[in-house]
Amino acid sequence: xxxxxxxxxxxxxxxxxxxxxxxxxxxxxxxxxxxxxxxxxxxxxxxxxxxxxxxxxxxxxxxxxxxxxxxxxxxxxxxxxxxxxxxxxxxxxxxxxxxxxxxxxxxxxxxxxxxx
Amino acid sequence: xxxxxxxxxxxxxxxxxxxxxxxxxxxxxxxxxxxxxxxxxxxxxxxxxxxxxxxxxxxxxxxxxxxxxxxxxxxxxxxxxxxxxxxxxxxxxxxxxxxxxxxxxxxxxxxxxxxxxxxxxxxxxxxxxxxxxxxxxxxxxxxxxxxxxxxxxxxxxxxxxxxxxxxxxxxxxxxxxxxxxxxxxxxxxxxxxxxxxxxxxxxxxxxxxxxxxxxxxxxxxxxxxxxxxxxxxxxxxxxxxxxxxxxxxxxxxxxxxxxxxxxxxxxxxxxxxxxxxxxxxxxxxxxxxxxxxxxxxxxxxxxxxxxxxxxxxxxxxxxxxxxxxxxxxxxxxxxxxxxxxxxxxxxxxxxxxxxxxxxxxxxxxxxxxxxxxxxxxxxxxxxxxxxxxxxxxxxxxxxxxxxxxxxxxxxxxxxxxxxxxxxxxxxxxxxxxxxxxxxxxxxxxxxxxxxxxxxxxxxxxxxxxxxxxxxxxxxxxxxxxxxxxxxxxxxxxxxxxxxxxxxxxxxxxxxxxxxxxxxxxxxxxxxxxxxxxxxxxxxxxxxxxxxxxxxxxxxxxxxxxxxxxxxxxxxxxxxxxxxxxxxxxxxxxxxxxxxxxxxxxxxxxxxxxxxxxxxxxxxxxxxxxxxxxxxxxxxxxxxxxxxxxxxxxxxxxxxxxxxxxxxxxxxxxxxxxxxxxxxxxxxxxxxxxxxxxxxxxxxxxxxxxxxxxxxxxxxxxxxxxxxxxxxxxxxxxxxxxxxxxxxxxxxxxxxxxxxxxxxxxxxxxxxxxxxxxxxxxxxxxxxxxxxxxxxxxxxxxxxxxxxxxxxxxxxxxxxxxxxxxxxxxxxxxxxxxxxxxxxxxxxxxxxxxxxxxxxxxxxxxxxxxxxxxxxxxxxxxxxxxxxxxxxxxxxx
Lengths: 116, 892
Description:
The complex is a heterodimer of chains A (about 120) and B (about 900).
Chain A: E1 10-11, H1 16-25, E2 30-31, H2 32-42, E3 47-48, H3 51-64, E4 67-73, E5 79-85, H4 87-111
Parallel strand pairs in A: 1-3
Antiparallel strand pairs in A: 2-5, 4-5
Chain B: H1 8-28, H2 33-44, H3 47-57, H4 61-79, H5 81-110, E1 121-127, H6 140-147, E2 152-166, E3 172-179, H7 183-187, E4 193-194, E5 206-212, H8 214-221, E6 231-234, E7 237-244, H9 256-259, E8 263-267, E9 287-292, H10 298-315, E10 327-332, H11 333-338, H12 341-373, H13 375-383, H14 388-424, H15 439-466, H16 469-478, H17 484-520, E11 530-536, H18 551-566, E12 571-578, H19 586-589, E13 597-603, E14 615-621, H20 624-628, E15 633-636, E16 650-654, H21 655-661, E17 671-674, E18 682-688, E19 703-707, H22 708-711, E20 715-722, H23 726-740, E21 746-751, H24 752-758, H25 761-795, H26 797-805, H27 810-846, H28 855-881, H29 885-890
Helix pairs in contact in B: 1-2, 1-3, 4-14, 5-12, 5-14, 5-15, 12-15, 12-17, 12-25, 13-16, 14-15, 17-25, 17-27, 17-28, 18-23, 25-27, 25-28, 27-28
């Protein structure tokens, strides 16, 4: 239903957005727009992140206590709400990352080596 | 971990910030502000949706919706103030009445007895089912068997009697409960002053100590703080006052008089005044209560008891003949205290619930009519995306708000009128003093309100949720109101309402009929301008001190009393009798008087099986009694003052006695005697007409009249006829009685007409209540059918206009409208009649004298209902006829 201008960008899999956000925040506090940008860039523009979809995820992570938020000032002097990783969030990231790696490896084995 | 919820504004600010940062970044990349803005918004997606999702993630959304709904409902209710007032008032009356009845039910039937561990308290009843005798009381040895059976902590007989209190300023009659010394330990209660009896005292004769009630302490002893040093005299015997019971304490008695016991005396029921050895077969102790051993259930206790009874029957075969089938039953004490009040209360609760239900149906109808007027609103809101569940919820909120408002007003009304209402309740209701509006009653009111709200809320809510948007909008555009489905629901509701009110009306009429029968039953005596005053001769525990021990000793007192009262101003006739001779006197039924009540006897020449003797009611009177009460002599002669204890015993019997025991013979000259040992033969000298002196409901109780001069009695009643003022005459009689014997109390002055009225007070109360409810139901049903027909006429104004314009006569229109209304009434009446037949069957089991297949009542009430319905339809029908075709066609 959304924009289709770019060349077949990947829809983010259910549940992976949380992982990506936590991963992005490992480099320090970041605001919503920055997180969206970072995910897009670090994935080599493979992921399409509808920025609006980011916020319910942020909301959820905040409620679970994995990230915390504070209003601050951006590099270009704009007001923005900055998110940072909490200790619980760090633990969760480690857990989710290893889970994701196992999943990816398993899928890789199922799909076979020929595609590389 | 506990963080404050983020506000929606804060979230919006974050989104704004995000968009601004994105615009900044894109502008840096060289885009114009316009392009950057468009791109930023595109990348973000739907901002409104994001805000909505934030809003929905809020955990309090349900609460938020509710607040919104309540606000909206409140606005809607205020907008139609008239409708709201009618609805709230209907519910208020319904909930108020239902809660009032419930508060009585709660106090009498539901709340536990006000004693510690009330579940352990039981009543003991002895039966001889083999000869059809129930609750016959127990004998002293049987009491001791039970006390030592290991089943009970304590067992105490209770013997309720009246007594003469002297040693205070004015001799008074007090109500006395003779109990075992363990009585107060059994109940687990403590006095406000002093101590209880020693529960382990088991010695012959009375203990010589009494406890008194708070009321007696205040009334006769002026709340004397040194009361414990005082003594009082009961029937001339001296007793020490060892305790005063607290103000709220009531004995767990079966009658109101017993519950208001004023003096408790302790006795182990052997030794003076009774014999030292009590025979097992003499069941003198009228009732007994007990406390079960802890941990024993009623069922287990009954099993142990059955085993005990079986072994006793084996041990004493002469005392317990097999054919009598002696058994002992344990009943929860509460059950026996409530007694037959339960039936009246259940009847009332049922009736009031039906009224409430009819009220709900009425409001459902009103709401339905309003809902169809609001179809456009619903359609528009649905078109704008309101979910069906949300719409239903909103309608329900409105109804619940309405019902809760009604409930609150109802409780307010109840609290305001509580004292007036309580005065309507007959005073013989057990636990009347405990009736209160407490938490459980309020909770009941809340629950009832919510249920009502749901009942009448569902009717309009369901169709509203099902409404088809396009057709809804179209229908509204056309100006039609009310879909076919709604009209059907409304008709069904009116039919229900009519049916229910018919049931209630028939119930009320059946009660009325049985009450009417009761009031019009031939009394067999004439109570007009007759009255009674009581006095009582003392029974000292030592019979040698009794100045009135024999009839011969009593006779001079009786003659003197007659002579003196006859001379009082205004007195035309005087007679004496025992207190049992007072017609329909309630207070006497409550006393366990040995001398009166069931008189077991044996007819001369006919052998009887032991324990199977026939019985009759026996009263003792002086010869003037029959003329004073205008009881006609049918055969033989009445006794005269020469039939004293030196002459052979004689008796006058009533027609019922003669017909029962000597059906085809002349009763005059026949003889009978009491089954008690060494009783003399009594010769029948006359037969009088039947009277209903025992109960208005029972006509043919065999009755024996003995000569007071031959039997004597300590429980005296003075009968007077003439133009008398009870207050004045009782003062004069007191002077006369006390100038003969200054120790005697004079009390209980009442007109016999009042005794007759009082004997049906409870039934009158039930009748008044159910009648009131039935009337309310009829009015509600009339309003209901009126509402539906007027609504229908309103909706069909255009159609009627067209019909009139095309030449239909006004009579045809009138007929059309009436036919519609009456068909509803007829269906409702038919359904109601079927239900009423069932209800009448149930009622005939609950209430004495109900004729469940009283065709006249059924037909009459149904006709009345249809007539009222016809009237309720006629008013809107007339309006329909008056429709002006030109106006009607222009009206939309």
